[in-house]
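Give me the fold.
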Amino acid sequence: MIRILLKTDNVEVNAQDMRGSLTPLYYAAEAGNREAVEMLLSHGADPSVESDGKDIREIIAANIDNFNFLAYADKVKKMPIKQKLFNCVETNDLNGLKRMAYFASRDDPVDWNCTNGAATLLQLACTYGNVKVIEFLLQRDGIDANRTSAGDSSPPLVVAAHHGFWKVLDVFKRSPKADFSRVAESNGRTVLHEVFIRDSAKYHDGREPEDSSYAKCVKVPLGKFSRTTISNAHCIADPPWQKLSQQS
């Protein structure tokens, strides 16, 4: 439940209640809940916020055995910003991304196009279908909505289509930065190819996961394709509708 709440838009991780200005971190520490304390700290909970006149760091030390608070806090603080970015995207931590954007300076801006070698931030977000995170990333200045990485030549749009994330495609459809005609260099597939081929690992059990529907995907991108693009689909002698006919 805590993990879900931390992913909620506009959640205030350091909010203080009416009882005694107590924060969520205080309650987690008081209960001796190691996992909750670590999650809250990693999402920006401030242990220096005084709760009912008590030092939360002392409460953590008293209630959680062998919890090296200083080492943990130092680890989070020293984590490279790129690692923090990818951690936030992977865990769908929109608020964490917002904090980094807010505190970024002109002299040290956030590189929203960075890659970890395997994926860009947008590619990773599209792999998980993180709609809100993708909306946020597409609003960043200088973001390249079609950028790929050394580890994956599939544009973010194609990645989303591969998994059937129609809501993600709809977000890209509303963005002038997205190019629906882009092709994955490794296999020549477009968004339409992925929608018709339907070979995502998520479908190996024969069921569509939540928020995923290839049928709904088909309805999203067509309006973004020109007649020429649909005719050749940028794919060498293997048009996407051929895949559809093979399934019928």
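The domain at 80-247 is CATH 1.25.40.20 (Serine Threonine Protein Phosphatase 5, Tetratricopeptide repeat).
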